[in-house]
Amino acid sequence: MHETSAMSQTGFSHLALILTGIPGLQHVYYWTAFPLWNCLILIIIKKTQSLHKPTYYFLSMLAVMDLGLALCTLPTTLGIFWFKIRKIEFNACLTQMYFIHILSVMESSVLLAMAFDRFIAISNPLRYSSILTKPTIIKIGLAIVSRAVISLFPIPFLLKRLTYCGNDVLSHSFCFHPDIMKLACADIKVNILYGLIVILSTVGVDFVFIVLSYVLIIKTVVSLTTKEKCLKALNTCVSHICAVLIFFIPMIGLSILHRCGDNVPPMVYIVVGYIYLIVPPVLNPIIYSVKSKLIRRAMLRTLWWKNESM
Fold this sequence. Notes:
The structure is a single chain. The protein is an all-alpha fold and 310 residues long. It has a single domain (16-309), classed as Rhodopsin 7-helix transmembrane proteins (Rhopdopsin 7-helix transmembrane proteins). Helix content is 71%, strand content 2%. It has 12 helices and 2 strands. Strands 1-2 form a two-stranded antiparallel ribbon. Helix 1 packs across helix 12 (293-309) and helix 3 runs antiparallel to helix 10. The longest helix has 34 residues, at 90-123. The radius of gyration is 21 Å and the shape is globular. It starts with 15 loop residues before the first strand and ends with a helix. The model is unreliable at 1-14 and 26-30 (pLDDT under 50). It comes from Terrapene triunguis. Keywords: Cell membrane, G-protein coupled receptor, Membrane, Olfaction, Receptor, Sensory transduction, Transducer, Transmembrane, Transmembrane helix. This is Olfactory receptor.
């Protein structure tokens, strides 16, 4: 029987929650090196003058989001895998949950900004530099942070007001709002409604505008004179499309599971949770490194310089 926390029948009660890892994978830890890829992308973009362009500024933002997500979740994940520490204090859990969710919303917004970047680059290349200036990019970055922080600010307080009793075991190695919410033995209609409003008004709106951006991009590309120009324009979008898919598919899957998957085996929650947690930060820098000649060349120069200096 799982160890349970001290509880009362009214108000805020949990002292600790129990996190869940993947059984049998306690010694598999090599994947924890994935933040290094994002650090490498950031260093290369900062040091390479030819990468000081709007596209790569947005890529830097994406790498920061992935790095932040890793820093939020690795402590509890490593605690389970390396030290078998499964307990997390309730306030610490709420803090981790808040940052995971704001970083996810921010990543969604960055992907929308990158879609806008691709649309401007393809539909109006002559005005690209004058539209996406550094001050404009800074304003976009501040708007992304502000929206995520403000929209998710009430979530921890809505969870703290609930009464918790009975089960205290979470489905993942990190704290996730729908997962915590289901542990309450009080009415959670307000939490469900607010969570739905937030996800639809942030991630949902971002996804709709990303799709709309690509409808306009395809419309522009179709009007190009030659097939070669058409393919070249579409090729610049491949990395972004991959980033969108590997972010939105696990996120939507995890949200649906927690809202509609009452009869789903616990292992499915765990696996989808790890896909949501690991896949985007691992694949994003690899995808952009493979598809971008400028990043590839900068990486090779960096590695060559290190080899020469050794």
